[in-house]
Amino acid sequence: MTVKSPRNFLKPLAIGAPEPYRELPVRVERMIHFVPPHLEKVRAKIGDMIPTVDVILGNLEDAIPADAKEAARKGFIEMAAAHDYGSTGLWTRVNCLNSPWALDDITEIVAAVGDKLDVVMLPKVEGPWDIHYLDQLLAQLEARHQVKKPILIHAILETAEGVKNVEQIALASPRMHGMSLGPADLAASRAMKTTRVGGGHPEYKVLADPEGSAPRAVYQQDLWHYTVAKMVDACQSAGIKSFYGPFGDIADLAACEVQFRNAFLLGCAGAWSLHPNQVAIAKRVFSPDPKEVAFAKKILEAMPDGSGVAMIDGKMQDDATWKQAKVMVDCAKQVAAKDPEFAAAYGF
Ligand code: GLV
Ligand code: MG
Questions:
Q1: CATH code, 253
Q2: Residue among 156, 256, 259 to mutate when testing ligand 1 (max atoms within 8 A of CB)
Q3: Do the domain assignments include residue 34?
Q4: pLDDT per residue over 47-75, tens digit each?
Q5: Element (H, E) at 155
Q6: What is the annotated signal peptide range for this record (predicted)?
Q7: How far is it, in rounded angstroms, from Cα 32 to Cα 118?
Q8: Which residues approach ligand 1 with their CB closer than 6 A?
Q9: Which terminus of the chain has fewer CB atoms gathered within 10 Å of its CB, N or C?
Q10: Do 37 and 92 have their domain in common?
């Protein structure tokens, strides 16, 4: 892959556009809450919703009917202008780049509310070329409309080609915020034989060896483990964040929680919420467990300079467990700064 020189990588792509960030802004993003902005009754609830979620995303792409695409774009502009979002992120998911709507989504939204928009989520990203295009276009629009801070890009990983190119996508621009798994489109793109939006499948399993006439144990496997792990490595090594995407079975709270927790344990920062009951799940899952945080604090206290060896509750601690503890405590501190309920549970 041909790459830009390090000096040029961090320069704005248009005269007058803001400087790209060197480090991502620190933000708690446990759930990216999807709303359909063409619906007036949904827009009427945004003010009350802002303090209850970490990110509000106005969805313009899939699930918005073709005849409502323009109303969704206008509705998003209206809801962006109507409220102060404070520390809650404001994102939009635009239509994909080869659709009839993407160009107007991007140009009209940046022109009208570019200063309020934190992140553009770009669907169906196949390679770094998609990011380069949006990167350049956003810079031109930021310059034209005197946007003060760079608008970040979040890619959805939802095609076989995108997964193949995930490392290059993660490194494509300093504008990259992170990536989400898009299990529904990805299943279709890969010709997986499923009809679900994320989650497990009862037929994806392994069977224990036969032992006499005893029933053979069956273990269901996680269809998404490989892709989530690959995404996490690509994102973490590029200094950006990874997210589990949507869980479509809104009524199956237990399965949603397990899928989210697997993603959290593997390194993801959050997931999408498609319904208010998934907000509570994401909040619980993507805020570190107070018991784990208490143990991590003990490790940091036992090894103040981060090196050496200590025994805590019979478990060996060294420089590497200190680093794990630091990840956990840093994450808990960020959550505590945003959420007083967790600040109390962590004792910060
Ligand atoms: C999300 O966009 C998905 O396709 O799962
Ligand atoms: Mg999709």
A1: 3.20.20.60
A2: 156
A3: yes
A4: 999 999 999 999 999 999 999 999 999 99
A5: strand 152-157
A6: none
A7: 12
A8: 62, 123, 156, 158, 182-185, 197, 245-246
A9: N
A10: yes
